[in-house]
Design brief:
The chain is an alpha/beta fold and 557 residues long. Strand 21 and strand 22 form a beta hairpin.
């Protein structure tokens, strides 16, 4: 009888007879709870309890794992059919639980997400139903939600054959394929980059016309986990809301999540919505920051723990966004029939390769982290003595990819010392895409060389030419909580003092600020917001303005 194993202090306070838990003469419920084990997440932010619900006269046992803080609001599992005799019974059950927890041993480790976790001074990688660890004896519990959902869909081919096939793919010298492979490795090592304070601050953007196999190549390289029904796992399209997409992405760590098919919507409003969602994701992922999103009456949002790949029919048209991406133009570098045939012949090559790579990486995390730091410091020391390039953020992106390439080549050398030809393929791909992206950036910059409205606004604020009042007084312009509130006509008047353009208008100014993502709009999608004084203002995000211009705003009085 399970009740006989309860602590003496519990049996003195409560009675359990004929399947009824009572406190004195007061019946509490037809079940009781027993904590089995405390569990701690590697981040230290959450603690879990493994709890047994013992139900009815038959003492049927149901076992659940839940966050400790969630116990008081946890509904009973379906099928238990228990009756709370009083509303206060939940409080008594919580007391019963706490009385038993004093005797529980120190918490064990509990993983509730895929990816890298730092446990007992070592990195381990959780791939759902598999753990890659340098210590096979390490005791780790995996959430059933993760264990039953995620599985790397590898085949049983011998590791030597898999590595040989991957090297054959690299030697086809397909630029998009080799760039996707390097980006995949960067995603797999993402937490290790972060651990040495070198966060990858960019994402992958695959553009091209319809029929250029954008989705094909993205899913071939990044769709690592199987779902059971054969559908793509780490992939969603842009039809869902931004909040839904962000919630879905939070399931993933240290892999690449595909946001697929950024294409024109059924109307202009839908097109703008999809583009705004993409812009927000690019900035959030590339800035390694949290982005708050309102979902109903709830505000949610976390920083992404995985890398992002976007497939799109159009190329980016904002310099600030291009700076945050690795661009692959499938119109310029189409997949040839030989590469497509290779994909068809080896459908599980990349997941099988990932599994082998993770086995090696888990045993060599210290070496990988030291190498990342060493390569980065060497790059920084050498770049300081050179004339800075026009696009420092792009330079950082390419050097992070170069570091991933060097780690990848070192991994291959363990199995095949003759890898120089492969190394040359990666160097060529990285060099080509850097030149292409610099060309795009120069073209975008030349379109705005006449004047840069964002920079002029910063200059007007910093030189106090925009006269600010206290927020409580309203006025034509004021700063409140990291936003510049300014009336459109007043901003236009100040800009006209430094911009010589007869066609410059409020409409052009509104369009410019909106496309740059600098404005907070009202619910009607108007470019301005009505304040309590009844007047309409641009609400300009000062943080984004600084990002856009790479200038510092002197907003203090």
């Amino acid at each position: 009888m399970a009740w006989g194993d309860m602590p003496e202090s519990v049996r003195k306070r409560y009675t359990w007879e004929n399947g009824i838990l009572s406190l004195g003469r007061t019946m509490i419920s037809d079940y009781y709870v027993r904590p089995v084990q405390r569990l701690l997440s590697p981040s230290g932010e959450k603690e879990y309890l493994e709890i047994q619900y013992v139900v009815g006269e038959e003492e049927t046992v149901y076992t659940l794992i839940m966050e400790t803080d969630a116990f008081t609001s946890m509904e009973l599992p379906m099928g238990m059919m228990c009756n709370d005799y009083k509303r206060s019974s939940r409080g008594e059950l919580l007391i019963l639980l706490k009385m038993q927890m004093r005797q529980l041993p120190a918490p064990d480790w509990y993983i509730d997400s895929v990816g890298w976790h730092f446990i007992e001074n070592q990195w381990i990688y959780c791939a759902g139903n598999e753990i890659f660890s340098p210590d096979p004896q390490l005791a780790v519990n995996i959430s059933q939600d993760i264990y039953g959902k995620f599985q790397i869909r590898y085949d049983d081919t011998a590791p030597e054959e898999i590595l040989e096939s991957m090297q054959s793919l690299i030697r086809l010298n397909c630029i998009p394929a080799n760039l996707c492979l390097v980006y995949l490795v960067t995603g797999l090592l993402r937490s290790l980059f972060f651990s040495v304070d070198i966060p990858p601050r960019f994402l992958l953007y695959i553009s091209g016309s319809t029929g250029t196999y954008k989705t094909t190549i993205a899913k071939y390289f990044f769709d690592i986990y199987s779902r059971g029904d054969g559908t793509s796992f780490a992939s969603e399209d842009f039809t869902s809301s931004e909040a839904a997409l962000q919630s879905r992405i939070q399931e993933f760590r240290d892999c690449v999540f595909i946001l697929d098919d950024l294409s024109p919507g059924v109307n202009s409003r839908e097109t703008m919505r999809k583009q705004n969602v993409a812009n927000n994701f690019i900035r959030t992922a590339a800035n390694c920051e949290k982005r708050l999103i309102k979902s109903g009456n709830r505000v949610q949002g976390e920083g992404f723990a995985c890398s992002i790949a976007i497939t799109a029919e159009n190329i980016l048209e904002l310099e600030s966004l291009v700076n945050r991406t690795l661009l692959i133009d499938m119109d310029k570098y189409p997949l040839n029939q030989e590469t497509l045939g290779f994909f068809l012949h080896y459908p599980s090559l990349v997941p099988s390769f990932v599994r082998i790579f993770l086995m090696w990486a888990a045993e060599n995390t210290e070496l990988i982290c030291r190498s990342i730091r060493l390569f980065w410091d060497n790059y920084r020391e050498n770049s300081e003595s050179e004339t800075p390039p026009d696009h420092p953020r792009l330079r950082d992106t390419m050097n992070i990819l170069s570091i991933s390439t060097q780690i990848l080549i070192y991994f291959f050398e363990l199995y095949n010392p003759k890898v120089k030809e492969m190394a040359d393929c990666f160097v060529e791909a990285l060099d080509v895409v850097q030149k292409d992206e610099e060309h795009v950036l120069r073209g975008l910059h030349s379109q705005t060389v006449k004047y840069d409205i964002s920079r002029e606004i910063v200059n007007l604020v910093n030189t106090r030419q925009i006269m600010q009042t206290m927020p409580a007084f309203g006025g034509e312009a004021y700063i409140h909580k990291e936003y510049l509130y300014i009336q459109p006509k007043y901003l236009l008047e100040q800009l006209e003092k430094v911009i010589n353009d007869e066609e410059f208008s409020v409409h052009k100014l509104s369009s410019y600020l909106g496309k740059k993502g600098l404005l907070v709009k009202d619910n009607s999608r108007d470019y301005t917001k009505k304040n309590s004084n009844g007047k309409r203002y641009y609400q300009i995000d000062l943080k984004r303005l600084e990002e856009e211009t790479n200038m510092y705003l002197m907003t203090e009085p």
